[in-house]
Amino acid sequence: MKRIILTATASLAIAGAAFAQADMSTMDSDGDGMLTMNELLVAYPTLTEETFTAMDANEDGMIDADEMAVGMDAGLLTTDG
């Protein structure tokens, strides 16, 4: 039973990262592989500076694919405020 749960959890994490990568490519207007606050605001107009900062785990001022996946999994990104 634990093996099934671990496999399902790993599959969801991989799917989440893949989705984040695909979603990022449509938002990454300058093609650098990272998302700025302004790039994210196009897709998530209610994004706050606080949420962006919470997602930016390495504090470099940009969101990478891993940070995007974690933010999405945590439900930090919403379009409805």
UniProtKB/TrEMBL annotation:
Gene3D superfamilies: EF-hand (1.10.238.10). Residues 1-20 form the signal peptide. Residues 15-50 form the EF-hand domain. GO terms for molecular function: calcium ion binding. It comes from the Bacteria. Keywords: Signal. This is EF hand.
